[in-house]
């Protein structure tokens, strides 16, 4: 212990003493969901430690927490006994107190995928009561095409980057769990189309943030500027042609300044228009990878009726419409107004596709639909929830594809599906967010009696 804990609220007898800055020598245990590993102090208090790996011995410095807290957050500031899976972080901005964008820069690529697999397995067991075998999963997390690189190399995959701006007008990224800005000259995981804009070289005084978007299905480039209150937009002169949008100070909406108000993406042989604020997968291979995994799991037939829930701009609805044919029908539901406009535009050629706007839990009951052959759901990070899952389980679908960016939400909802009479037929996991703790999963479900 190299520092005595100090109480920032001295004089308040009811306030627990802050342990921020306190250091502990600890042995690191298993990985946990969220980009950190678990350790315990000599007194038994739980530490969630970043910048470390299972099996290491480190000096961990507390970054959040106080005496008596259920757990403390900490950074590994000195590595006493390194793991064989450790590498020197390729990014100069990675490390304790620095950029919070990446979690595993210090781990070999294969180790990152194994850690993600351990997190998925732990969440499935704890929240759904499923072993990997019971989930039809071989335990592997597959890299995207082109991402299998040797240690020390970083795939440039992030096609949408949200930059923050510091008080001096420098573009950077947020530090972990902080509003503080880490100014950078280059983000290693940014896609080439983002890096070539030269965002980091410009003065962005008066801006609160800049989002840079580089479509992979076209040469479309876009920046979305969010000015600070009362600030005027700068003249945007970047290294490549770019459309400019701005976030409205009063309504919070995104408005066109010049250029296209959308970018064009490609998947499954089709071009998709994605407007500002519309969702599209960030990894350039993600849309195609997930679309194929869903279609291979569902095996659509001509004449099927299908639901695409949380449908965004219509990626899965379009793939389903192609495969169920003119005798089939697809209903998509999406809450975002602009995304719905884009989905209707993207799928206008299909007479038997309908897109409804609103929250799934509100719109789906109003449709009067009592049955469906196939269902795809790609909910936000919080998951679909018990009410929605219960409704879906009552529609009698032959197969359901659940696309999940959060293994905890996935596991909770799989447990609800089991209560509703569905079992997991198969699960696949994809490392579509290298260097971070995020992972994408596709689970295929079917009525439980079919598995007996």
Description of the molecule:
The protein is an alpha/beta fold. The protein is built from eight helices and 23 strands. The protein has an eight-stranded mixed β-sheet, sandwiched between helices. A hairpin with a 2-residue loop joins strand 15 and strand 16. Helix 1 runs parallel beside helix 8 and helix 3 packs across helix 4. It is globular, with a radius of gyration of 23 Å. The protein starts with 22 loop residues before the first strand and ends in a 5-residue tail after the last strand. The N terminus is likely disordered.
What's the short story on this structure?
By secondary structure, the chain is of the alpha/beta class. It is 19% helix and 29% strand.
Strand and helix layout:
Layout lengths: L22 E5 L3 E2 L3 E5 L5 E5 L6 E8 L6 E11 L27 H20 L12 E3 L16 E6 L5 E4 L6 E3 L8 H4 L11 E8 L6 E7 L15 E5 L6 E5 L3 E6 L2 E6 L10 H13 L6 E5 L5 H10 L4 E6 L2 H10 L6 E5 L2 H7 L7 E4 L8 H8 L5 E6 L2 H13 L2 E10 L8 E8 L5
Helix pairs in contact: 1-8, 3-4, 7-8
* Number of alpha- plus pi-helical segments: 8
End-to-end separation in angstroms reads: 57 Å
Tell how many strands the DSSP assignment holds.
23
Dominant shape: globular
Mean pLDDT: 94
Instruction: Characterize the largest beta sheet: strand count, sense, and whether it forms a barrel.
Output: 8 strands, mixed
Strand line-up across the major sheet: 7-22-23-21-20-17-18-19
The residue ranges in which pLDDT falls below 50 over 5 or more consecutive positions are 1-13
Given the helix and strand composition, which structural class is it?
A: alpha/beta
Radius of gyration: 23 Å
Helix content: 10-25%
SS strand fraction: 25-35%
């Amino acid at each position: 212990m190299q520092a005595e804990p100090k109480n920032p609220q001295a004089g308040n007898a009811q306030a627990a003493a802050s342990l921020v800055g306190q250091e502990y020598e600890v042995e690191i245990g298993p990985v946990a969901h969220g980009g950190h590993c678990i350790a315990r102090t000599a007194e038994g208090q739980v530490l969630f430690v970043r910048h470390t790996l299972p099996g290491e011995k480190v000096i961990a410095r507390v970054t959040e927490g106080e005496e008596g807290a259920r757990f403390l957050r900490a950074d590994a500031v000195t590595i006493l006994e390194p793991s064989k899976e450790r590498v020197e972080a390729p990014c100069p901005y990675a490390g304790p107190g620095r950029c919070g964008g990446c979690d595993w820069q210090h781990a070999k690529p294969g180790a990152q995928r194994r850690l993600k697999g351990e997190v998925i397995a732990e969440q499935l067991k704890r929240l759904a009561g499923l072993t990997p075998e019971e989930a039809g999963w071989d335990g592997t997390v597959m890299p995207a095409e082109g991402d299998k690189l040797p240690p020390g190399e970083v795939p440039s995959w992030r096609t949408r980057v949200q930059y923050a701006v510091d008080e001096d007008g420098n573009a950077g990224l947020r530090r972990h769990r902080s509003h503080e800005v880490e100014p950078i000259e280059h983000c290693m995981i940014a896609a080439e189309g983002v890096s070539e804009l030269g965002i980091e070289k410009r003065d962005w005084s008066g801006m609160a943030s800049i989002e840079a978007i580089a479509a992979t299905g076209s040469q479309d480039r876009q920046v979305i500027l969010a000015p600070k209150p009362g600030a005027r937009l700068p003249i945007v002169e970047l290294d490549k042609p770019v459309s400019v949008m701005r976030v409205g100070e009063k309504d919070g909406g995104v408005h066109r300044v010049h250029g296209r108000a959308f970018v064009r993406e490609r998947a499954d042989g089709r071009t998709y228009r994605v407007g500002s604020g519309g969702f599209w997968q960030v990894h350039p291979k993600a849309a195609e990878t997930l679309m194929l995994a869903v279609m291979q799991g569902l095996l659509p037939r001509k004449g099927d009726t299908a639901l695409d829930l949380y449908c965004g701009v219509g990626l899965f609805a379009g793939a389903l419409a192609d495969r169920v044919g003119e005798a089939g029908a697809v209903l998509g539901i999406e809450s975002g107004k602009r995304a719905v406009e884009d989905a209707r535009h993207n799928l206008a050629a299909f007479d038997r596709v309908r897109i409804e706007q609103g929250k799934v839990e509100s719109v789906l009951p109003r449709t009067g639909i009592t049955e469906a052959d196939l269902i795809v759901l790609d909910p936000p990070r919080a998951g679909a929830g018990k009410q929605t899952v219960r409704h879906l389980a009552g529609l009698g679908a032959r197969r359901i594809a659940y696309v999940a960016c959060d293994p905890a939400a996935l596991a909770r909802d799989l447990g609800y599906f089991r209560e509703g009479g569905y079992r997991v037929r198969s699960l696949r996991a994809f490392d579509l967010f290298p260097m971070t703790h995020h992972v994408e999963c596709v689970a295929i479900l079917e009525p439980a009696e079919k598995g007996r």
